[in-house]
Amino acid sequence: MTNQRILLSPPHMSGREQKYIQDAFSSNWIAPLGPNVDAFENEICQYVRADGAVAVSSGTAAIHLALSLLGVEKGDIVYCPTLTFIASANPIIYQGAKPVFIDSEPDTWNICPIALEKALKAAANKGKLPKAIIVVNLYGHCAKMEEILALCEEYGIPMIEDAAESLGSTYKNKAAGTFGKFGVFSFNGNKIITTSGGGALISNDLEAIKKARFLATQSRDPAPFYQHSEIGYNYRLSNVLAGIGRGQLEVIEERVDMRRYIYQVYERELSSIRGFNFLNELENTRSNRWLTTVTIDENETEASAKTILDTLAKNNIEGRHVWKPLHLQPLFNECDFYTHNENVCISEQLFQSGICLPSGTNLDINDQRRVINCIKAVVGISEIEDNFIIQ
Ligand SMILES: Cc1ncc(COP(=O)(O)O)c(C=O)c1O
To answer: Which domains does the chain have, with CATH numbers?
Structure first.
């Protein structure tokens, strides 16, 4: 058995990217605009059934543009789930606004409608409602959209759907990313499809999409010289990278099927271990299973999230803790936070007990077996293979 490094979620090229990259080179469209960018935007729209899309340099840039388009500015408040990557919240700070963090709920790990309602009621009483609510579909699982959208409507607050991790997921047959006023995708190297780095902002509001394109291109006024009346950004995606995206998007459904298959193998092999819990899909949803996650209840088994991750690392396998909640980040230690209920903080429990397992679509079945056997060896239910290092 080899001891080659197994990565969490490496890029997986389809082989179709080269043609589009070659087109960009042949036509000399080596710029942050061009035919691949236009086509990629249209293809994203077709795939998720949105009216408009702007391809940008990162998912973070797309969130920033969404906040800017919603008029979020200094002194405003924006709600954000606490259990997410920091990129969901950083653009709130870019705008000079303040994040308020909302706990997870246990069924999807996403923003908790109960905590959200508590926060909104308190804000309404104070007369200071948030300017926007960011909702994240963590690890590919859609948030409880109906409950969240009902609250957004009741309080008249626009939702930004951070679907960076959930391209290809659906909720009641509707694509992830299409529930909010704005949806955000990331094409970072570790995502289900990649452009090496990139992102997209989508919306059915075509005027807003036009404005996003303007803001992302340094807000250049329609004048015969360089004239700028408002602040802009250099956020457009390169035509070369959009070519990679086109070749990747052609195989998105295969990629979703493969991630789901990888999840099924882990679940089949590990779910009978006492204390190991996998996340089921909500009824009528399809998760792209971007990363397989599992929680380990230390009271039920000898192992813990830490011992498993340490052992994986010693065996050249990359696993990760679930995101560290943002309300625990030193950067945000002064921000308000609303928990699931008075005595229970779901996100902290998930951080303590949750790990992400290698889930890349190019994960070889023998490599996945290596991951599984390594975990089984930690909990003492499989033969320790000769070259396993168990602490
Ligand atoms: C939930 C979430 N939001 C936002 C981002 C930011 O995307 P990007 O890395 O493309 O800026 C990521 C991933 O990187 C993410 O996982």
So the answer is: 17-249 (3.40.640.10), 252-378 (3.90.1150.10)
